[in-house]
C-alpha cells in the first residue's frame, strides 16, 4: 500500500459494540455501504457525491450475517437511495440480506457493485475492482 492510498476517515460516528459495522459519514442524500475490504471504494464514492453538493451516509460492515441492519436501514429509509459495494470473492454475499430488507423500504434507487467472478476456478481473481464513479454519481443526482 502506498502513502496516497491510506484513508483516514476518523472516528466512526456510530458503531455497534462489537464493531460489526461502523458509520463514518451521515447525510440525507444517499446511503453507501461497503463490505469486506471495499471501504476505500465507498469512501471515494462518498467524496465524489460531496463534490456535487450531495451528502451521503457511509457505512462499513466487517461481519458476516446475522447482523442487526437497523442503523443502515434507517439511513436508507431516509435517503431512499443505496449503493452497496462488496468485494468478497464468493457468490454467497452477506450484502444480499441487507439488500433484501432495504428493497422492502421502496427505495428510489439501489445499486449493487460486486466483484466479477470468472468461470475459471484455476485462475485467481484480481483484488482490484473497477468502479465507474461518474456513472454512479450521475444516476444518484438525476
From TrEMBL:
Record's InterPro entries?
Transketo_C/PFOR_II, Transketolase_C
Location of the Transketolase C-terminal domain: 25-88
Q: Tell me what this protein is called.
A: Transketolase C-terminal domain-containing protein
Originating organism: Candidatus Liptonbacteria bacterium RIFCSPLOWO2_01_FULL_45_15
